[in-house]
Amino acid sequence: MRYFELFAVPVDYNIDLATINKNYLELQRAVHPDRHANASSRDKLMSVQSAAEINDALQTLKHPVKRAEYMLSELGVDIRAEQQTLQDPLFLMQQMELREELEELASASDPDAAIANFEKQIKQLNEQYSAQLAEQLASSNEQQYQLAADNIRKLKFVYKLRDELERIEDSLFDD
Amino acid sequence: MALLQIAEPGQSAAPHEHKLAIGIDLGTTNSLVATVQSGEARTLTDELGAAMLPSVVRYQAGGITVGSDAAQAATQDPANTLISVKRFLGKTQAEIEHSYGQLPYQFCEDNGSLAIQTEAGKVSPVKASSHILAALKARAEQSFGNQEILGAVITVPAYFDDAQRQSTKDAAELAGINVLRLLNEPTAAAVAYGLDSGQEGIIAVYDLGGGTFDISVLRLHQGVFEVMATGGDSSLGGDDFDSLLVDYFKQQTGVSALSPSVLRLFINKAKACKEALSQYAKVNVGLEFDGQNHTVEVTRETFDEMAMPLVKKTLRSCRRAVKDAGIENEEVLQVIMVGGSTRMPLVRSQVHSFFDKEPLTSIDPDRVVALGAALQADVLIGNKPDSDMLLLDVLPLSLGLETMGGLVEKIIPRNTTIPVARAQEFTTFKDGQTAMSLHVLQGERELVDDCRSLAKFSLKGIPPMAAGAAHIRVTFKVDADGLLSVSAMEKSTGVQAEIQVKPSFGLSDDQVANMLKESMSNAKDDMQARMLKEQQVEALRVIEALNASLDADGALLDDAQLTSLRAEIAELVKVRENAQQPSEIKAAIEKVDNASSEFASRRMDASIKKALTGQSVDNI
User: Fold this and answer.
1) Count of CB contacts below 8 A, A vs B?
2) Is pLDDT above 60 for B70?
3) How far is CA B291 from CA A89, B206, B262, in A?
4) Helices B597-619 & A17-31, crossing angle to 10 degrees?
5) Where is the J domain (chain A) (predicted)?
């Protein structure tokens, strides 16, 4: 997979972020337009394209959802533009409960503790789905990829909850 | 580092040859130009020894005046004397009037963009800026015995949007300047202090200039400068402190109504008094006018008391910016002072106590931005091949498209590291639909009306299909200067949809070309000569760059490819020397450019591979 090759790291959902960050800078030092400010317009164009690709690769690999979507699409299952919804009543039920809990955080008797507790739940879910994803994406089984797609959809819900939590936290401690 | 450099005979450029590049601080009130000589950045002065060029241009039927002569005429000829045009870049008349109230200018339209009617005709903010830039370029050329200036880094405020950045670049092009990079002002200040190497952390840049105040919070992480937050007040600066003193003089002398010339005297005395108070605890100001003779005593204490509310106002902006950045005051590692007004002891002590940190003031705050720009220009032009400097900027404001219901869908969020390319797919919503219009916006708000309109596109020539069957892929590209370009294609058929770009602000390439022609139409030969020279310089740049690449990486091509590329270069060398028409050179450059495309792409791939393998070789 090109993005992993670019950063010279093994193709694995569990990334080595430190190496990627370090290699990112080495790559930008080589290709960034500032390094080719003096070059011909053809070289400049090439440099902008390469720098943009490396930036995009970094953004993609850094973000757990984007990384999973990218890997899955390279494996032949592209769900990045899909409109499909998740068909998992149990999961959806759990999400609704979490949403309700989230909305009550602000009025909890001890908001700090409630937020910390909620954060812990999200973290657990995140770890659970990520661990499954790593295995599914490492397999060479079409069925596993479909399961991975579902896991990515679930992970998206988890990240939405996390964003929402941050927003609530901000509004609580703003004043 | 190489201890010894061995040049092959016939190698194009001598390794020690110093190329001339400049850094320009195109300021609201004053502009400066700087360059690096013998490893040290310094600002260039005019024949009177002044480094600062007032950003003022006066347009008379007889000609154009730039700088202090123009500034002195401002009171007697306000309509034709353009002051602080930087505030107008990339703006509409409505926006300008909303922000600055009544101005002494007669606004009009010129080819669909904003202009000001003067004695010398319609002048757009871009054109006025180009005259300031041209004056600075001329100063630099004179300083170096008319040696060719190969490129410039021009600074812009961190919060400048695409329209304002594009306008700045257009102005440079009009002035005949090859822009190496548009650099954020606070980043330039940080570079001048050498903060790009070594330290990591959060840097606040407090910039109190003649008429504007900016605060920027930057994060420096692994060589990446990220603008975390910006804020400020576009109508608060040194001039406001001067007018406080003018009021004090009026009160002390008992003179209330001032004639324009006496007002000018008061303002000049106020400026001098303010500057003296930065060094002395007490200043006696002599005011002689209309047969009267007054002496007003001003102590620093009195002045500080008057100035305090304004300084507090800047600190409120600082507090907001720090909050927007999502950090605490204590997390700020360094505070850099920029702008002449930061010489005021009150400003320094207040900023010191606000951030609880001694601010950096060792570099002249008027020059620090220009010096930083010069340092980067020197690296970019290739005078420091061993330099490790790499400034990665981020997009200051999100880019998006208008969707149904007047909402904005973000395509590239703010703070994305640039350059960046993002594609988004759209589909048709009617059967047989062959065109689609898109509206590009910039800003953080959700409603179209609250964001800045950058351009409206219509995609034509979409093959007629059932609703939802056409997939139009729109690609946004933002270059290292933060400038946007857009392209589109229909995916299933591969038809490249025709795009019409109608910039809502700024200028199209054609407009720039036309203005360039217009500005020189009274001297046709001059234009011809200038364009020929520009093409010669460009051709030389291409030849040198390609020769250097071939020396380094010629092995990437086989013998036949090498021979044919070398032949094309030799042809360009010949055309460059003999051509009478700029178009001949241009065509030859394009030919070489096309011939080298395969080589360019192989080199880039090779350098990507080398970037990471070189590292393991070092480790052995």
Assistant:
1) 110
2) yes
3) 93, 43, 12
4) 130
5) 2-74
Q: Provide the CA B271 distance to its chain's centre, in angstroms.
A: 28
Contacting A with CB below 8 Å, chain B residues are 151, 180-181, 222-223, 376, 379-382, 388, 390-392, 416-422, 425, 477, 479-480, 541-542, 545-546, 549, 592-594, 596-597, 600-601, 603-604, 607-608, 610-612, 615
Which of B161, B162, B170, B185 is labelled catalytic? B185
Q: Is B185 a catalytic residue?
A: yes
Q: Could you report the predicted ipTM of this complex, rounded to two decimals?
A: 0.81
> By three-state DSSP, how is residue B20 classified?
coil
Alpha carbon B7 to its chain's center: 37
What does the pLDDT average to over B109-131? 90
What is the average pLDDT value for chain B, to the nearest integer? Answer: 85
Interior/surface letters B198-211, b for 16+ CB within 10 angstroms, e for the rest = eeeebbbbbbbbbb
Could you tell me if A115 and A105 are in contact, meaning their C-beta atoms sit under 8 angstroms apart?
yes
Residue type, B525: D
Chain B nearest CA to A42, separation (Å): 6
Residue with tokens 């569990």: A14
This prediction has a pTM of 0.82
Given a cut of 90, whether residue B53 has pLDDT beyond it is yes
Kind plus residue range of the DSSP H or E element containing B128: helix B125-143
Question: By the 8 A CB rule, do B476 and B421 touch?
Answer: yes
* DSSP-assigned letter for residue B159: T
Q: Give the three-class secondary structure for B110.
A: strand
Which chain B residue shows the shortest CA-CA distance from A170? B326
Q: Which chain A residues are closer than 8 Å to B390 by Cβ?
A: 25, 28-29, 32, 34-35
Q: What is the pLDDT of residues B264-305, one digit of tens each?
A: 889 889 999 999 999 999 999 999 988 889 999 999 999 999
Of the candidates B107, B96, B86, B113, the one whose C-alpha atom is nearest the C-alpha of residue B504 is B113
At B140-197, the pLDDT tens digits run: 999 988 888 999 999 999 888 888 999 999 999 999 999 999 999 999 999 999 887 7
Spatial separation of the C-alpha atoms in residues A96 and A161, rounded to whole Å: 11
Could you tell me if A20 lies within 8 Å of chain B, comparing CB atoms? Answer: no
Residues 6+ apart with CB under 8 A from B504: B163, B453, B454, B455, B456
| Secondary structure (DSSP) of B268-292 | HHHHHHHHHHTT-SEEEEEEEETTE
B381–A46: do the CB atoms touch at under 8 Å? no
Check residue B14 and give its pLDDT: 47
Mean pLDDT of B211-226: 86
What is the distance between the alpha carbons of residues B18 and A111, in angstroms, rounded to a whole number?
A: 63
For chain B, how many helices (H) and strands (E)? 15, 26
Q: What would the pLDDT profile of B508-555 be if each residue is shown by its tens digit? A: 566 656 655 555 555 556 667 777 887 888 888 888 888 888 888 888
User: Greater confidence, B505 or A163?
Assistant: A163
B8 CB-side CA count, 13 A: 7
**Does the annotation count B430 as an active-site position?**
no
